[in-house]
Amino acid sequence: MKHVKIAFTALMLLIIAFSCQKSVETSAIEQKKSNFRISEIANTSWPADQKICSSPYQISLMVREQLPDGTWLWIWGINNPNPGDGSNGTIRDLGHWNIQLPDCINLSNIKAAKVAYLNQLFTYFTPVIEADKSYAACDIDVTNGKKLLKFDLGTNGRIISYYGLILDKEYPIDQNAVAYYFAECKEQGTGVTCFPGIGCPEPCIEGCSFSQGYYFAKPNFVWPGNVTIGGHVYTQAEGKAIWESSNRGGISDAKKAFLQVAAIKLSGSSVGKCASVWNEVKTAENWLKTLPKLTPDNIKNYSNKSVGEAAGRIGSWIDANHCGE
Question: How many domains does the chain have?
Fold first, then answer.
């Protein structure tokens, strides 16, 4: 009985320790989200390679990173390069700005929104997508009544302002995203500009491929270049020698894989980047990487049933997605 009590006590201590560890991990994640002090990126140099658009204010993407829970943090910075009262080339403080979200983003994709001046904690706000009434009160509404996401924080002299969104997943950068700025209700105080904003993933396109016969049997055809398969570089002459090697006793799995992968790779950008066939190509290449460079003399020495089946599926994909000659 004594041993049972000791074991039970040890188990409870282990559970408590594990719970504390998970609590610390969760706390660290929440602290990263809730108490992200902007001084953490204060020493980040202003990105010089981002597109500069026609705007009195400089807008740069300062942070784009994945958080521990899988969400993505975006932080933009806005700088007024010449603050003043608007005379003699100076620029009035920004009052606020709006961003036009892409079609693939709605409020359900935004997990948090926040704003801060340099060296301050972020202030969270509930994002809404609606027309900005500030523009409607002006004689010139550069937004044309569009429904936008408003960051209700401007600039204060030379102090950099920061604006953050936490999104549900990864999205690409659109260097030509649209933003609207508001400083005062005058023509020079409002405007539209581009900035490095949120883009939408490209739609998945299967694309097409020419067949192995097109690349290996077509008379007088010249490859667009050498092809790398399984980590080995093959010239057209080497590839054609494999194609013409004897099939007596059946085509080996290595030859099946080589020819089908070559057809896909030689088809280049015609095959979509996210085409389903790449999974089969990866299966074949992972095995081919374990083999020496293939030649007509050794091509029949290597067998792998699953790779041979993957090569067959590559062939079926090409049949269904043939570019046509």
Answer: 2
